[in-house]
Amino acid sequence: MAEKIKDVDSPRGLARLAWRAPIWFYRLGLGGLLGGRMLLLNHTGRKSGQARQNVLEVVRRDEQADAYIVASGFGEKADWYKNVMAHPEVNIQVGSRRLSARAERLPLEQATAEMLDYNRRHPAALKTLAGILGYKSDGSEADVCYLATVIPILALRVTGEGASHQTGQ
To answer: What is the pTM of this model?
Structure first.
């Protein structure tokens, strides 16, 4: 099973700036350069009620369910994750498309299936994600199944075309 090797907090200072840099691609109208592998999440702060933004990797595009599957790389303690659990109505931008969506955490069985599929397609990326969370993973099925219990997987289900009106942090 994946082994916890260190406790990790969300990035601060310069590291936070680096993590947030892709937001500027969207703000400058260059989101299309990031393709379909990334999306801009516009959400509402759970405490402040202020507009917030994060760029997330798209784990998988579920065409049938009209949803974008994403993972919370910093686990349940990530602010954006807490915010969308409190206020699940969000706006997303994928490339140049602006969409309204509803965020929902996938049940463990579905999350595990998504993680296993992601590991088959992007094994190095999953090892990196595990490391970001402070876990050492050998990429085995047992490790990936365990990681699905600590890395929340969400579906951003499209509810319609929408203008992304939020521009906060």
So the answer is: 0.84
